[in-house]
Amino acid sequence: GAVVSQHPSRVICKSGTSVKIECRSLDFQATTMFWYRQFPKKSLMLMATSNEGSKATYEQGVEKDKFLINHASLTLSTLTVTSAHPEDSSFYICSLTKWGGGEEQYFGPGTRLTVT
Amino acid sequence: DAKTTQPTSMDCAEGRAANLPCNHSTISGNEYVYWYRQIHSQGPQYIIHGLKNNETNEMASLIITEDRKSSTLILPHATLRDTAVYYCIVRVDPRETSGSRLTFGEGTQLTVNP
Questions:
Q1: B100 vs A45: CB contact, 8 Å cut-off?
Q2: A81, containing H or E segment
Q3: Please, are residues A49 and A32 in contact by the beta-carbon 8 Å criterion?
Q4: To the nearest whole percent, how much of chain A has pLDDT over 70?
Q5: pLDDT at residue number A54
Q6: Which one of A31, A33, A36, B91 has the fewest beta carbons within 10 angstroms of its own beta carbon?
Q7: How far is CA B104 from CA A14, A43, A50, A99, B5, in A?
Q8: With an 8 Å Cβ cutoff, are B95 and A103 in contact?
Q9: The pairing of beta strand B108-113 with beta strand B9-13
């Protein structure tokens, strides 16, 4: 499999501040990573596709200026929630694809963001 | 990608087999059936996938009907740690697409009881 880490696992911030979430591939070089958001008791929703060395591709309805994605290397993608508001409180999960006899997508453990 | 339909919730006794159904009546010929699960407050975990034939790995078995319009994920001996939301996802061969995005439905909450 692939090992994916996220940091921090939990973060509480005040409204109006910015929060950066890191997603790291610990044993694999990933040209593409994905960012999902999950509200309580809801399913995962894809926010954006992060491509190493190029701009991220955002899903419809996701504000690119609010959710800044930087895929600076083959093992690191970051998601910055700018000017966070309470409605941004959610579980943010990254994932990457590693081919293993049929392609599996590996997910990070998630980051719980609470905006007060 | 084709839409899937799963029961909202299911219960299973510990040690018994858990059979999770999934309907995907609009599946196309080049679409695979993938199963993931998500334990509470964790990231999803890949379980198994298949195209036409039944598949088995160390985690589960996947039974796909001959017309491919439905499938069943089987956990042969469910344990308490198998309590999770199970997602059935139908998607085209990711090698044929520019990205490997997954579209999650609501899934089935499986609760394994002692």
A1: no
A2: strand A76-81
A3: yes
A4: 95
A5: 83
A6: A31
A7: 30, 6, 18, 20, 11
A8: yes
A9: parallel
